[in-house]
């Protein structure tokens, strides 16, 4: 199976995937998002056991990070390298993690109007989450402090 837990040897590649995928934000007038640095190696190490990669030809081409927020799996990050985009890889990672999610629920926060964000997640059975718990509200506050609220954002949940 091409999905596996990430190894320490993957981490530099995950940063490269993030940088490459971030460039798409530049094309839609969000250069600040494109310029945002990926997680450091130390930050990625903190996700050990909670980072899945999609591997092709012996190399990770996408990854997904999970946090536990309000006792639910929360997608902190899902990123696909542009050369592997639009091939169902992000969906495969999300389905893989959803199958393991407590209570068969999965949350995330995302940009409302970016085509490969909220509209994409809606196609994957995520819905706007109008009543996020206290920890997810804290996630949103941190995102706002980081400047992400410059563009409309929302919380989403998948329950089926």
Automatic annotation (TrEMBL):
Residues 1-160 form the N-acetyltransferase domain. It comes from the Bacteria. PROSITE patterns: GNAT. SUPFAM superfamilies: Acyl-CoA N-acyltransferases (Nat) (SSF55729). It comes from Kineosporia babensis. This is GNAT family N-acetyltransferase. PANTHER family: PEPTIDYL-LYSINE N-ACETYLTRANSFERASE YJAB. Keywords: Acyltransferase, Transferase. GO terms for molecular function: acyltransferase activity, transferring groups other than amino-acyl groups.
